[in-house]
Write a structure and sequence with these properties.
mainly alpha, 75% helix
Length: 330
């Protein structure tokens, strides 16, 4: 483990410990214990947003290549990839190398790799739009939380992400000049870039549907907020649950390098709940409950990944993934 990763983890654990000590532990424990058997309903809840994400990934394939794709393989690929992204300090990149391999040999490596890159674009764009539209709803709704500098910072962050994604789409959709690096017209990336370019030019509607379903996945997080808080004995209005999820996404995107959200999950939720006028203990309890759910799903995703790797190791010629492509010499 690199020094930076160790420092980040230590800071995260220290932050978590400080929160537990500073906030009345008995109140936090009471809020968590209030959930009780409700955690059995909270735990499988991400099935729905992972289903939305799997549909979004299917739309990142061309119409022809999407035919016959088994939904379960897409679902397992999403869960496994998200788990690797969640548990590693890779800036949500490492998991993208996992997803193609989870589909086995049902599609060519070029097609799978192109779909993963397109899905990463559409997911990031969906998150940016979710934050932008969510901030707009929160700022103008009954809560009227964002004013002045905070509104400008939030909107600016969302616009920046959208602009970067838009520029990336334009670059990928353009015809590369011969010898251009790293996305050169000839060489190891030539087929991959050509596949992405064909998709972006020939399937704009599918691209928009991919963004839509990833957006529904992010929106579903607000439903989980309502479910968890209801079992905690709270009664949050819909706009408040939306505010919690929008602000959580903003904080998560800013702290993307922290593996497993150590400390940031709890600190972020505590700050958000306090800002919304709820006791800090309830925010910390909510953060701990969601964190436990995320860790269990991450463990399940890693198990799926391990099983898939073992099955591939028994084959004579496993499919080439993005990571293998990047290791080749130019």
């Amino acid at each position: 483990m690199k020094i930076f990763e160790r420092i980040v983890l230590v800071v995260g654990f220290v932050t978590l410990a400080a929160l537990v000590i500073k906030i009345n532990p008995s109140l936090v424990a009471h809020d968590i214990m209030t959930v009780g058997w409700g955690f059995l309903l909270i735990l499988p809840f991400p099935v729905f947003d992972n289903a939305f994400n799997s549909i979004a990934w299917r739309f990142s394939f061309s119409r022809q290549e999407a035919k016959g794709l088994p939904f379960l393989a897409l679902f397992k690929g999403r869960v496994a990839g998200d788990s690797v992204n969640y548990l590693t300090p890779s800036g949500t990149i490492a998991g993208e190398f996992v997803r193609p391999g989870m589909l086995g040999d049902i599609r060519s490596a070029e097609v799978k790799n192109a779909s993963v890159i397109v899905a990463k674009l559409t997911q990031t764009l969906a998150q940016a739009l979710f934050m932008l539209l969510g901030l707009f709803a929160v700022a103008r709704g009954p809560l009227a939380l964002l004013t002045g500098r905070s509104k400008l910072l939030g909107l600016g962050w969302g616009l920046l992400i959208s602009s970067v994604i838009g520029a990336s789409i334009l670059v990928l959709a353009s015809k590369p000049a011969p010898g251009t690096r790293p996305w050169q017209a000839q060489g190891r990336f030539a087929g991959l870039r050509a596949a992405i370019r064909r998709y972006l030019l020939d399937h704009p509607v599918r691209f928009l549907f991919s963004v839509l379903f990833f957006g529904l996945g992010y929106l579903w997080g607000a439903a989980e907020v309502l479910l968890i808080t209801r079992f905690m004995g709270m009664s949050l209005p819909l706009e408040t649950a939306l505010a919690v999820e929008v602000l959580s996404n903003i904080l998560d995107s800013l702290m993307f390098m922290v593996p497993a959200k150590v400390g940031t999950q709890e600190a972020g939720k505590t700050a958000i709940f306090y800002w919304l006028g709820y006791p800090a203990s309830q925010g910390l309890a909510f953060g701990l409950i969601r964190h436990l759910r995320e860790l269990l799903w991450a463990a399940a995703g890693f198990l799926l990944y391990a099983v898939n790797r073992r099955s591939l190791s028994s084959t004579e010629a496993p499919p080439r993934a993005l990571s293998e492509l990047l290791r080749e010499p130019l």
